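Ticket #4471: structure output looks truncated?

Reporter: J.K.
Steps to reproduce: submitted the chain below (393 residues) through the standard prediction queue, then opened the result file.
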Amino acid sequence: MVARQPIYNSQMGVFGYELLFRSPAGASEALKPTEATAQVIASTILEFGLEKFVHNRNVVINVTPAFIDVISDIQLPAHKVILDIPDNLVAADKLVSKLEELRAKGYRLSIGGLSNLKERQLLPLADIFRIDVQQIKVNQLDALIKFLRHYKNIALQALKIENMEEFRSYRDKGFEFLQGFFLGKPRVYVSRDLSANKLAILQLLTTVNNLDTPIEELEQQITRDVSLSYKLIKLVNAPFFGVAREVDSIKQAIVLLGRDEIRKWVSLLALGGMSDEPAAVMEIGVFRAKMCELLADRAGLPKDSYFTVGMFSALDILMKQPLKNILSKLPLSDSVKAAILERRGTMGNALSCALAVENAQWSDIEFADLGYKDLSEVYCQAVQWTDNMIGQL
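Returned output as attached by the reporter:
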């Protein structure tokens, strides 16, 4: 399975993705680094399409000295590719010459590791220097940053960021790029009053997710929010939906899509409208939602509430409130709440699988009796759907 891990810029926009690869369960032996790189590139290009898989963003590929020799023979969009050079690299003249050649073609280079600082031939060629912030002392880090700032060609990348406090701290130290599974990790929130904007969204979610809400009241609640109504009408008429005739009212949209779909799309648009949250946070919820739904569909299960389970599992990071408190205010079934809070039932299993993919916890990526190929295809579909949807919100 090929997965991608986002690399964020200092504004928490997605700068690019590092490609990660796991060989199928049951493989006789682990792949060697060069073989793993070849698998990543082959799987991503041949099965999914590289630019589609990373949504035309930058892509970081881990390479070995052996792979550096042959990468010129592979058709890659050089201006989008950053080659992640391994630590402890011996900068022989032949290798340095090859790296210079690749840079001339448009490839960028990322190096890391304290041992590579001794290879002074590499630093003038590097575009990024990556630092594992969990493996370096504060005084060493400050000295290293000061040293690297002499190289105007180098941007700093912090690896293994574990929480938002670390993100802000290393951003303030001058790191241009930051990477880690910090956004989706559970956090402890203190219950406090919601802002007027978030309170209105929660009230809307309550209405649209209440199956007893009359259609007329549902229509009134949506039309009360002019911005939401505009976005919903625009979305329904987009090629994404492929409607036969133009929809020009909320009532038409409800009739056309049906209650379940309206609930899903209104929830997405409403949560996506929270202007104080970066798009990367919303992307987590959208990915979980679609991943859960596609897992159920691929396993032949009724998929009605799987999308909701995935989407609402991210309400704590979207609203900065304890998840249990938020869910207690929503008219959701006990099975949906148990799936989100306790990972119970098949919906909980789907959410666990989505979270495992999100955090590259390879051994936990499983659902029902789906095989490696099914899980890989579902993941890719969820990624592409999420990228397209984020552009609509």
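Triage note (M.O.): checked the attachment and the full token line is present. Residues 2-179 form a domain with the TIM Barrel fold (CATH 3.20.20.450).
Status: closed, working as intended.
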